[in-house]
Design brief:
The chain is mainly α. Helices cover 35% and strands 4% of the residues. The chain contains 4 helices and 2 strands. Strands 1-2 form a two-stranded antiparallel sheet. The chain is globular, with a radius of gyration of 16 Å. The relative contact order is 0.12. The N terminus is likely disordered.
Amino acid sequence: MNVLVNDRLWIENAACRSASVDPEVFFPHERGFDVEEVALEICRGCPVVDRCREYTIESDRQLASVYHVHGICGGLTQAQRRAIKVGRRGLTALGLGVCRGCERPFRPKGTKVTEFPGTVIERCKRLCTRCVTKKKSR
């Protein structure tokens, strides 16, 4: 799935786009101050944080040779995003597969998303719950 060319109107609903939010808090280490928690708190209250997280991880993957997404994005630090990407490759290597709708990797049944960030549980015919719900609503 190429999320970079798909509809990006969701960005307009992001909490970080508010006029009252200083964009520099999302780049704490580049600016020489540590306000990471401020940015993460804004992300936790964002209505589109899940979509932002997926977009950011996919952007990191697709544009790795051109540029790298810096700072806090999608409620994750750069180090956390790197760990998710490494974890996804590892889960795929375990043979659990990926959702054929959203291409997120499946995690082992009976585990929590906090144990395997960025993953989903397989529900039906190689689809996660979100994709099964979308398919049913069509």
